[in-house]
Amino acid sequence: MYDLQGRLLYSQNVQAGSKVIAINHQLEDGMYFVQWVTMDGASGIEKVTVVK
Length: 52
Fold this sequence. Notes:
Elements: E1 30-37, E2 43-50
Antiparallel strand pairs: 1-2
């Protein structure tokens, strides 16, 4: 998980086949980006908004 300045804030390995991934965080309200990469090389970036 990255902030808008591109700083890495959180990293986690996930087991194959997981449908839901919990992120234990202490993030401030705002916009963040989650980058993911699979074992077969697929990847993507998702925008996440945190509102408490």
